[in-house]
Amino acid sequence: MGSFKDKLFRFMYGRYGQDQLYYACLIACFVLITLNTFFRSYIIMVLIFGVFALMIFRAFSKNINKRRMENEKFLKIWNPVKGKFKLTIRRIKERKTHCFRTCPSCKKILRLPRKKGNHVVSCPCCKNDFNIKVR
Question: Which of 24, 39, 74, 103 could staple 123 via S-S, CB 3.0–4.6 A?
Fold first, then answer.
């Protein structure tokens, strides 16, 4: 088994391998395969093969700089989406102990302790004072 592992390492030397875009394509393949089990469409099947071919091409490519730039473009799109998703999950988990309010001037989301009543809050970014009511 060791010789196979060595041969695989030698084959992959100088090739790009996996990155975040590879894993996103992998998840997209699984989602498309699941959809195809329910709807049985040739269009979905072509999309599956296209995404799979893209994954294989990127993993075995020797043009490392171009693949890195593609991954950076993907991450510029993906990171804000991921951040909003994480914030939503955090808001759901902390809804009993904290409330989240948006600053009216800079639109920054503030995490405040949940204490009933009217409060004056100072935004740490823009130093604007505004009133909030917590129920």
Answer: 103
Lowest mean pLDDT among 1-5, 74-78, 87-91, 109-113: 1-5
Does residue 4 have a pLDDT over 80? yes
Predicted TM-score of the model (pTM)? 0.74
Which tokens hold the place of 90? 């955090």
pLDDT at 87 over 80: yes
Same domain, 64 and 17: yes
What is the domain count for the chain? 2
- Considering just the CA atoms, what is the radius of gyration of the chain in Å? 24
Cβ contacts of residue 56 below 8 Å, gap of 6+? none
Question: Residue 41 belongs to what domain range?
Answer: 2-93
Considering the domain architecture, whether residues 102 and 123 belong to the same structural domain is answered as yes
9 has pLDDT over 70: yes
Same domain, yes or no: 89 and 111: no
